[in-house]
Design a protein that fits this description.
Blueprint lengths: L5 E6 L2 E6 L3 E2 H8 L6 E7 L2 E5 L4 E2 L6 E6 L8
Parallel strand pairs: 1-7
Antiparallel strand pairs: 1-2, 3-6, 4-5, 4-7
Amino acid sequence: MPSESRYRIYINNRPHEIGAAPLLATQVAAMAGVPLDNVVIELETPTGLKEIALDGTLAAVDGLSFLVTRQFIMGGAA
């Protein structure tokens, strides 16, 4: 029986276990519980936060850390 590699990633400082398959940005949003129509996904890097496009794909790596938020849209009367 083959053993599947598992990785621990962090989304908004909460740990999540994922498999070795490529990680889709839409999966990250779903794990965070943020609707796709107004999500902002950022990957923490040594040089700061890097925004990830919604159609982006990342290789699964242990320790990836994401900040997932809702895009704030100001509304008002014209």
